[in-house]
Amino acid sequence: xxxxxxxxxxxxxxxxxxxxxxxxxxxxxxxxxxxxxxxxxxxxxxxxxxxxxxxxxxxxxxxxxxxxxxxxxxxxxxxxxxxxxxxxxxxxxxxxxxxxxxxxxxxxxxxxxxxxxxxxxxxxxxxxxxxxxxxxxxxxxxxxxxxxxxxxxxxxxxxxxxxxxxxxxxxxxxxxxxxxxxxxxxxxxxxxxxxxxxxxxxxxxxxxxxxxxxxxxxxxxxxxxxxxxxxxxxxxxxxxxxxxxxxxxxxxxxxxxxxxxxxxxxxxxxxxxxxxxxxxxxxxxxxxxxxxxxxxxxxxxxxxxxxxxxxxxxxxxxxxxxxxxxxxxxxxxxxxxxxxxxxxxxxxxxxxxxxxxxxxxxxxxxxxxxxxxxxxxxxxxxxxxxxxxxxx
Length: 392
What we know:
The protein contains 18 helices and 6 strands.
């Protein structure tokens, strides 16, 4: 066994790993690990008996340098572009369909699981009481920006907002999600969040459809807004700041506002016809909004359940065009519908438009943003990637 070359504060045991894990991260045998210790590259600490633990920071730093020397910089760059996983998470899996904490989302939708229960599943929280709010907590404006506008007041009203026990944070999360739902919908929250959102933005008869949309949107691994939330959480930011970072990232036209681009495509179809609009876009080399997802070559598992609910909703010219596109585009190009098209069709079937689709997406995803913020805090890792300098 190697001799410990530097003392490590035993209170920082969360930063220590056994030799098996250190060797796995470094991709070396135990003898090589011992040589790193003897050279002062990796610190170790004697825990008593024959077992020693190693500084995870030293191991990860050395592994990163070794990877760079082997020419893995391109791999690191590609990992940020739908590439290999860049961090560990136990929340959501997209490897074989879509699962929250191991539970298939299709099954959650088929069983009509409430959004509140889905959120608590993502947070690993015991069932708790969700607050009722008397009215909206944000100034007038589009739903997404009402959510953003509500955050400063919510944060300032919660003086001890930094940290707390798991139970305290889970109750804070319930109030935050409920408050943002009230802000988005402009309606009081009582009963269920889905019923309140349906009442404020559509009609209470659409409560089941709203709930399905919220559950389908609750999380999706490391999308851009969720990664923004995790970066904020890694700095120690409170839940309000983490959700705020996510909401601003979510506002981009390639993410939460994608329904506006899809609406423009639908209106092209209404002007020149569906087949002509598809042909025109393809002839120009444009992508077809609402279709294809890099993670799901066999189709976005969230799309079919929501499209089925859109079919059962109220008819409208825009809804009918969206449903027609869901049939024609796969037949002509092989590209399959994704969540954006399904949300747009569902919103149109409830008498709403792009803003309703974005609101459903944003309110639902608050559950996932909070789950990832809580998980990132537990890791105690500061997310600070490096840039490859290419300037003069």
